[in-house]
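Researcher: Re-running this chain for the archive, since the previous output was lost when a drive failed. Same request as before.
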Amino acid sequence: MIDTYSLPSGPPDIMPEGIASHGDVFYVSSARHGTIFRGHVGEATLQVWQPAGADGRTQALGLTVDPLGRLLVCGWETGHLFAYDTATGELSARVTVDAEVTGLNDVCVQDGYAYVTDSKRPVVWRLAVDGEVGPAEEFLDLGAFGAPDPADCFLNGIVAGPAPGTLIVCDQAEEVLWRVDTVTATAERVDLGGVHVAGDGLVWVGDVLYACDNSEEDGGIRMWLTALTLSADGRTGKVVERWERPVADTPTTAAYLDGRLFLVNSQMFAERSGHPVGHPFTVSALIPPHS
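Model: Regenerated structure tokens:
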């Protein structure tokens, strides 16, 4: 069984960021160049699936596959959300949000809609994906529910919540999780009992929510894979365990497939902290550590 998957050689600063799975296949994005790589659980090396810059995709972060088999790709500061047919590789849609400043970071699908976090403002965008990909609307501004000014927040990971019609959203800067109700278009902070989670990507494995989590301690940054459990309504939760990951790897997000967690090792903080950055960029596969 392969436990480390490598991206192919290319620019020295690929900086992989997002991941999504579709059957035994998984896709990884490049935040720096917009390349989309495709891998298979049985093959140790990924391949370029969508080249850098194609379709105006010069940056690519969060990914998910919708029920119609389209890979949705967040275009960060380009303001674009891309949809690609996973069977043919063809561009199905490119939607641009109506905002002068934006940072489309992560995406999940629930009840026929794609919900996208914006890291430049505390905003969640929404667009229909139950047929043709629809236009993006500014669905919810968390500032109306107590989120801080844009300079003090950084919305990041997003997943469906434990209750129908809910989402869980990370504010990585404020180190909190938000519960979003998609029916009433309201939001509230998840009560974690005073514990801070500086979450990046999120993924469910059964009833355990894993977060790629970073925290500042003693003047330095530490990287964690953090396991949480949430109440049935998603209003409360607790951190049940944390496992430290190498700072040089800087895991940004994870997907669950083949019975394992696939962690994207972005090397982003390595770059900021003076560690060597470069090939091979990797994805680590491990059995979920919390049983």
